[in-house]
Design a protein that fits this description.
alpha+beta, about 15% strand, 3-stranded antiparallel beta sheet, about 550 residues
Length: about 550
């Protein structure tokens, strides 16, 4: 049942959409986003294209589509009120027993107050693109009500991972519900082809005797992009909002769009490497010596264009935020180099011998009959063939793989956010490593200063010791000379008190007194032959000189 909400002119509705965004206007009037969009399109009112609000937040030039006539025509807006008929709902076998659901037990969408702000947060637009799922409460648990026809439309309008956000469960749970209700889901690569503009086929909803509705416990799993928001704690709220906004709108560029110049150059390098590797005999030595380019030996030539488009989408989304790409296709995010490794899975197949190998085997059998020492040719048993399933690793930690639920192209937003998360981890490791290097360098400098100080103290101690030894030797030498001088004087005094002396003896006493004064350190007399007495030095006994010593 459609309920009237408001009546506006095309001009007023046009102005509100281009000022606040479609999501905010729908939220203001309490109209589900999808219903509001249908009415906007029916009224032929242009609305902002994808990426409009992101460019606006970066102050980049944007184009506002004009409104066609008649601009004053009135448009009535409605919202659909769903009435649920009371009936028995088949519960999930793993869930609790579910009672009959009536209008009173269904959790209705709460009323939303008009948004007073005239500006919409770009990061919040994708979160309002679907109306809440129908639920009911029992025993403290919240249960989703899955309608077969509605769920069929939802899984073919957007990827299962996006549908899971509406019901707040995992994508695996949505696949299980679809299987239990006999709802076909898009196959592997469907959304990648759809976004690339290639023809895709939607499987019709088959007739089934299974129930039209199903109930299942809401696990409370937050949408994936919300988890990513919680991860980007190192960014400011404004930067985090911009990164998340870009991640939610990230898509592959058109196949005919020109790629980033460094991706083009690297792709040529990989193609050249593959060309040389085919001529293995001619380029064997050269190939072994040359460095293998990134992606050359990990993926097939068939998958190379697909990987280049993925890298091109990531770098073009990151360049407005200051990200860049190195020549070997490493991402520079927030000044840190983030490594991305990509590999393609291989299937193990029995090797089918080639014509040349069959000739070698026949020759071996012939030689074996003639000679017992014939050598069997070395032919491999298995071939490993690339199967197109790609795995992508960011910083050798977090990985994304092609699987039944999604392909890597469906996770571009998660990869983009993880590049920022990895850059922060690299920055933290780098800062920790630099801090450890500084600590080690400071310890070495402190150890060197300590050794220098110990060496200085030892040198001071040595000088002090040597000075003390010098003073002691001088003292001992002076005391010994003084003792010698006293002994000479005592001898002179004894001689003088003896009997009468001759003239020679008197002259000898005078000479002896001069020698006593020469020895005495208190007088420091200089001898005409020996000069001054040197204290503190070992005194050699004076001996007569030889004629040649004069």
């Amino acid at each position: 049942m459609d309920a009237f909400v408001v009546e506006l002119s095309r001009k007023d509705l046009y102005e509100m959409i281009w000022v606040k965004s479609v999501a905010c206007v729908a939220k203001e009037y309490g109209i589900p986003y999808t219903q509001f969009m249908k009415q906007v399109k029916a009224a032929n009112i242009p609305y902002p294209p994808s990426g409009y609000w992101t460019k606006l937040s970066f102050a980049k030039p944007v184009e506002k589509l004009p409104l066609s006539d008649p601009i004053d025509e009135m448009v009535s807006l409605y919202k659909t009120v769903t009435t649920i008929i009371s009936r028995e709902i088949t519960p999930d076998p793993t869930a609790l027993k579910v009672p009959k659901v009536s209008q009173d037990t269904v959790k209705q969408k709460p009323s939303i107050a008009p948004n007073a702000s005239n500006e919409a947060d770009p990061s919040s637009v994708p979160e309002e693109t679907c109306e809440p799922a129908e639920t009911y409460e029992q025993y403290g648990q919240t249960y989703n009500i899955y309608n077969r026809e509605n769920l069929y439309q939802e899984v073919w309008e957007k990827p299962v991972t996006e549908v899971a956000k509406k019901y707040k469960v995992s994508d695996v749970a949505i696949h299980k519900v679809c299987k239990s209700l006999d709802i076909p889901t898009p196959g592997l690569g469907y959304w990648a082809k759809f976004r690339a503009g290639k023809p895709v086929k939607q499987l019709p909803l088959p007739n089934s005797n299974k129930p039209d509705t199903k109930a299942g416990i809401r696990t409370g799993r937050e949408p994936q992009i919300q988890v990513a928001k919680e991860l980007l704690q190192f960014l400011s709220p404004e930067d985090k909002s911009v990164v998340v906004s870009i991640a939610t709108q990230l898509q592959l560029p058109d196949e005919n769009a020109r790629m980033h110049s460094k991706i083009i150059a690297h792709r040529k390098k990989v193609v050249q490497w593959h060309k040389e590797s085919r001529n293995r005999d001619q380029y064997w030595n050269k190939r072994n010596k040359a460095e293998i380019p990134f992606l050359a030996d990990t993926i097939s030539e068939t998958v190379l264009p697909r990987i280049c488009r993925i890298l091109d989408a990531l770098i073009k989304a990151g360049e407005p935020l200051g990200c860049s790409l190195t020549d070997d296709l490493k991402f520079v995010v927030n000044g840190e180099t983030v490594f991305i490794s990509i590999s393609e899975s291989q299937d193990k197949l029995d090797h089918v011998p080639t014509k040349e190998e069959n000739i070698q085997l026949l020759k071996y059998e012939e030689d074996k009959r003639r000679h017992s020492w014939a050598s069997k040719p070395n032919i491999r048993k298995y071939d490993y063939v690339y199967n197109g399933k790609v795995s992508l690793f960011v910083n050798s930690e977090k990985s994304f793989r092609d699987c039944k639920s999604y392909v890597i192209e469906d996770r571009l937003g998660d990869i983009f956010i993880l590049l920022y998360e990895a850059s922060n981890e690299i920055r933290l490791h780098r800062e920790a490593r630099e801090a450890e290097e500084r600590r080690r360098r400071e310890e070495l400098e402190a150890e060197e200063l300590r050794k220098k100080e110990e060496s200085r103290l030892r040198e001071e101690q040595r000088k002090k010791h040597n000075l003390e030894v010098q003073y002691k030797n001088l003292l001992v030498s002076a005391a010994a000379d003084f003792d010698t001088a006293q002994k000479i004087r005592a001898y002179i005094s004894a001689v003088e008190h003896s009997a009468s002396m001759t003239q020679d003896e008197i002259m000898g006493i005078t000479w002896a007194k001069r020698k006593a004064d020469w020895y005495d350190p208190t007088i420091k007399c200089e001898d005409e032959i020996f000069g001054k007495r040197k204290l503190g030095q070992e005194q050699k006994e004076e001996v007569p000189k030889k004629p040649w010593e004069l």
